[in-house]
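Lab meeting, action items carried over

1. Structure of the four-component assembly. Owner: GW. Status: complete.
Input record:
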Amino acid sequence: MSPTASALLLTAPAAAPLLVAGAYTLSGARARPPAAAFAAVFTQARKRASAQGSVLVQQALVPTTTRRKRYPTDWVALVSPAVILTCGSLLAADVVADGPRTAYSGLLRADALTVWMLLVIGTVALIACGSAPVYLRGEREAGRASEWTVRRYHVLVQAFLAAMCLAVLTANLGVLWVAIEATTIVTAFLVGHRHTRTSVEAAWKYVVICSAGIALAFLGTVLIYYAARQAGITEAWALDWPTLVAHADRLDPAVTRLGITLIVLGFGAKAGLVPLHAWLPDAHSQAPAPVSALMSGVLLSVAFTAILRYRVIADAALGTGFTRVLLAAIALLTLALAAGLLLAQRDYKRMLAYSSMEHMSLIALATAIGSPLALSAALLHVAGHGLAKSVAFCASGRILQLTGTTRMGRVRGLIARTPSLGGAFGLAAVALMAFPPFSLFASELGIARAGFAAGTGLSWVTAAALLLVLLAFAALAARTARMLLGTGTPAHESSSAVWPLALGLAACAALGVATGPLTDLLHAAAHAIGGQ
Amino acid sequence: MNAVGYTAVAGQIVAVTAGAPLLTGWMRQVRARLEGRAGAGVLQPWRDARKLLRKEPITPAGTGPAFRAAPALLVATTVVTAALVPLLSTDTPVSGHADLIVVVSLIALGTLALALAGLDTGTAFGGMGASREMTVAALVEPTILLSVFALSIPAGTTNIPAIVTGAVDEPARLASPAGLLAVAALAVAVLAETGRIPVDNPSTHLELTMIHEAMVLEYAGPDLALVELGAQMRLTLLLGLLSSLFVPWGIATTGSWAALAVALVLLAAKLVLLGAVLAAAEVFWAKVRLFRVPELLAGSFLLALLAVTASYFLTGAS
Amino acid sequence: MSLIPAALATATALAGAGALAGCALPYRQRVPVVGVLTAGVGAGGCTAGAAALSGSRWSAAFPGLLPLAGAHVAVDALAGLFMAVAGAVVVAVAVYGIGYAAGHGAHGLGSHSAQAVLPLFALTLVLVPVAASVSTFLALWEVMALASLLLVLAEHRERVSVRQAGIWYAVMTHLGLVLLLAGFALFAAQTGGETFAALRAGAHTVSPAVRGLVFVLVMLAFASKAGAVPLHAWLPRAHPEAPSPVSALMSAAMVNLGIYGLVRTGFDLLGGGPAWWWLGLIAVGGASAVYGILQAAMASDLKRLLAYSTSENIGLVLIGVGASGLFAAYGNRPLAALALAAALLHVVNHAAFKALLFCAAGAVLRATGLRDLDRMGGLRAPMPVTAGLFALGALGAVALPPGNGFVSEWLLLQSLIHGLAVPGVAVAVVLPLSVALIALSAGIAAAVFVKALGVGFFARPRSTQAAAAKEAPRLMLAAMALLGAGCAALALVPGLLGDGLDRAVDAVGLPGSGAVSDGGLKVRLTDVSATLSPLWVAAALTTALALAVGLPRLYGRRRRRVNARLWDCGGGAPTPRMAYTATSFAEPLQRVFDDVLAPEQDVDVTPVRESAYLVERVRFQHRVPDRIEHRLYEPVLRSLAGAGQAARRLAGGSVHLYLGYGFAGLVVLLLILAVGW
Amino acid sequence: MNGGLYTQLLDLACGLFLLAAVLVLWVRELAVIVRIFALQGIALAALAVLLGAHEQRWDLIGVGIGIGLLRAGVLPYLMRRALAAITADRQRYGTAVAESRETQPLVNVAASLLTAALLTLLAYAVARPLTELNPTPATRALPVGLAVVLIGFFVLVTRRRALAQVVGFLLLDNGITATAFLATSGVPLIVELGVSFDVLLAVLVLQILTTRMREAFGTTDIDDLRELHD
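Predicted assembly:
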């Protein structure tokens, strides 16, 4: 493939969302005031109508506005996932065939891991953006969203996608840091999109905790840079990942150890790992459902890929012992915390958030094990968790709109009320409980096998992890059953709300049965991050 | 010889069927004499049976096929066991088809049929009798099977003719502690199975205590005759089994007519003797409370267990 | 030999079609189509199993399937036996299910989801024994668990208890998976390969301690799936709450797979082990046998009773397997083969009669809406065929001749009795005890099924529903008749299975015993002299019965039976409320086993206001709790709830707290680095 | 300039830098805190310029000046605006004082100062290998950077006013920048730009959130944000 083509392929995933975002901004710039005004009037009118329950007003309004009104612009957002997926698949063939691609003098670089993450981001984004229109319609009809907020939503989501694509595409660890910090800033307003007390609180916690954590990661980056410079790498290449991996053995162990510790802590904060995990349930429960899906489905794992990349350097410089102990300890703590908090959980969005922590800790455990099998399992787990969790969050958003509460105690008989939605949520929960045919079963099985094969210490860790997973499973099963089962009065659910969820579940199940063409990519990715 | 074999089987069946009322009559007579009464005579049970058989068959309201089939089934199981147990001869053509476990289970099957009949009447008496009967039967089962176990260890098989012939060949087995313990255990089990004192009192109709009589309370006429006959046959059969297991002498081990005749006479003698002993014992014993019965059976179970372990460790079967 | 793969492929295809049909078709067509396709799945499995039993083998590998592992399959006689049993049960139950779901409305078993899952469940039942690698086995195992879970939940709209049962089942089965995963992963890690072939080859290189650990983990897991004490807690919940065809499948086919896994792992993969493994297994078996049947004796819910009786029969099978392992450990392989054959034969028999019993119970439930024996009664009049078939199944379950359960229990007892030929004090102590336990459980089983049959079907109706019962539709009757025929065949000519059993026993490396042979007419123990010919016993019984019925007729003068009132002690005709209920029937047994069962009862007497001596109302409550749950599970649940409440404080909401975590973590790590890693 | 003078100036700048961090812990008045933060920004800029002058790298000097503008000019300005916005409509209620003061931190001042001392010691202990790797006057001053990082984090944890937390976050960031300069005289320009831009945006976001917080909660006391919990 020609350099220009590869450069294009490498640029497009990050650029396309930015363009879409720009388009939305411009449409906002020349947005007719009537639109906003009409929206406002319309919402007030609806409020009045519902307030006095007057049939007249309803009929005056309803035919002209609610039911018939379409929002075609919401579907424009699907462009960028499409682009990301296309570039991802094109790159996949290329990368598997003949090695990594670079562009802009190595600033952007696509190896197997990059491509894998691009595919995951694309698919999850497809699910999230695909279920966004129905969600936004619900918000509009409930009068919680005006045209302006919706446009802002689209712009920020696109920027968010761009930042994540940049994070996985760049080879420069500094730019990687910048991109991940950018995700924090972009999503801050998505988390706090409503001006209520809870959303402001969630946004504040999110920004403060993540910025502090990510700052530590930057300190770690600086230290690694320092070590690299002292190892005689020139300034231009001292943050270039391939160069660092190549010369890792020359890095000073003490400095690298300090650096990697800070980096695991820092990026761990974005990946929802102990000790800087606490922003996660608040942010996930307050953000709009599609955004929660993106954050939980890919943001966490994108942040974790940073740790994966640094781990290669650290292991080459220090030997596997240090990162293994560090990651295993953090993974076990996170898992224990998540399991404990799932036990007495009363809010289903928070429940999903804690289950994300559970799965991230499993991925961290697999990274700690570090054998090829474990790393492949970790990457497969990233994909499976992304798909299942995004479906679960999107479904939970609709459930919130239907029931008006996030308290599990007040939600009953979902399957009886909306079979499609309840079924999707239930299946997503089943997938998160790692039942086959969903791919999380295959990956957890792989992690367990690798863990028991990795020596006595890790065998015990794995056994403990399995028990904690059992606890989480019990909690999740009990809570979900309470929400889904039982009697209820049927309610209508549009099919356009369900197809993205069905797509995600189907993809997750397919991955669990056979990875098919992705097999080589998966193994190449595992190989790229040290699974030799 | 095969003729002899079949004759032996037929003889056993006839002996048990025809002898059962006589044995009962004899026991009642002994008891009456010991209690200082004149007694109704040995043939009284026969007369009762004849009288009942002539009466019209009765179907109590609300009972079903189980109620009608049970008496016949009771008798049938006893007859089959009578054919299987070597009362007269050890080499019968049928003895190869089954073993001690089958015999025990067939007897249990009879009990079960009667219990179902008791429940089928849908009266409080029937249910009470059935529940108590099944409780006792359930508790007797381990004892019987462990005794079977104990007996089969020296012979190395559960095949009854083999056990019996073995005992005939080397009487030392019977004198061994294992043998004696097994006898005691099995004797208690037989008392429980046949519903004699101290487990149950066949000649009472006091609802607080009765077991067997409560089940069959609704029977009348020919059905009652069959039930009575069945109960008597079981007593005879089990006593016969005891005798042939523990005093096997005289049982024909070869297929000769003479031996068969001798065996018949000796069997009668043994049964008469055993019956007299049992009747005499019943005069002096009292029936125990229903919820003391488990203690009794637990005791017999312990005996059986001791018998097994003893026979294992003493005869050193290793 | 291409029959096996062909049959399995057909079964898979049919299952897929069935799932699609269940999703797509409207209610009217859905139920029959799915039923027929499911029956096809069962037939395929049965064919493959029969082919394997007749000596052909098959194995293959699909590297493309199952990411990170690849799928491996292999079929030998042992797998064939369980496939055949599962397939046969599936065929009958699928036909039964058509009739069952037809009248039941578009919810519950008739719903889209349930009808879509049913064929898949059937398929996994057939396919689990085919798996030949750890990953394949666990994947199929979990799919089976998931499918059964969804089916158990099918009637969640009708009763809240279904949800509880589902949660219990899900958690227990996942506990089983965790144990299984740990055991197998450890085993695979030690042998350095995850296909069964690799495990088999590397087993002898593993250290005894690890082998023991693996066996204990795997045994616990499989025992919990098989419903053995103390990990049985899901069974008496899930089986009653599931739709009856599902209960039948679970109790007659799924539970067996626990036994399969145990035999496969213990004998085949681990290649046998020291005596203590098998003594432990016998202990578990004996405990489940007696405890299960005692709980069954106390139960007044018919399906709960049947579920506990499953627990009992599994206990008997486990005793057999344990004895076999014990004998093998002491080097007496023929006897080991005999014990294993007895255990496997009992698996087959139990599958037959338990499927029949659950189907009959389902027919009653469908006709009356009742599961409570105390409120049934008199069903033999309105539903005679069901009653008759239930009686047939019960005869098998009480293990008395001429029932089919008797043959296998007879073999089991024979193997135990002759086990004393094996040296070792442990044997001398354990065997008599297990014989006694088997006998005790058999005795109580007799009481249990007399209760079920006599209280449930005989006497007079004790409730309006029971009085208004109607006979089940023909399709259900036909299916039950099929199962009944199976029971009868197994009871009369068990020898037909003989060669298959021998091959199955051979497959795990024990010499075939040839115990059950002679063209099915005799069960003869070759090395120890004991014979049994069930056919003869049955024939003799029938003849004797004919005589006993006929002769009095000839003698007696009056043939015509006349009706009469029940004896009423002179005071009014006895009402149905006077009849013995299941509870009262079980009362003496409960008194005898008071210490084991620990029943709870409280009487509260409310006197009238004027005087304490005049009683206004007396409330009497009596229940027999599952004691093991009481002692084992509830403390765990309580502590977990406490832990959850405690954990909530960690997420108290204060930003400072959250940042404090990070600061503390940072400082601690820096300190560690500072003092030197 | 000669080495001795360079070293002395460097140490002076570092001393100022650390002192400013400690002072932030000391004083309560938010306005003063902001001013001190500006002072620290100047010290940081001076640090960069010094290094640039020493290594004759004009780009570095440029970066230093830019950083000085950002940290001593823009950011303090933003915070003063936020402070004004907070306190503006509070005058009549007389709660302005409460809003504009860090009245009672979770850890009182004395304890904070002691902790700061301990943290500085920890920083010295941790920085040992860094210094050993390449002992120059600059790297000898590395502990200062780490100490400021830790102190900044400590402020973040213990201060209750929203603005105080922002300052804490910025202290953390200053510390990291200082470390970067002292260790390797700055990270590559693109990264440096990205970092500064991110910091700017983060502060903007936090400022907007602060105003929203005041609208929603009527106070900027972070300790009142306890509605989201399990």
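2. GW to write a short summary for the group page. Key points so far: The longest strand of chain B covers residues 58-60. The radius of gyration of chain B is 19 Å.
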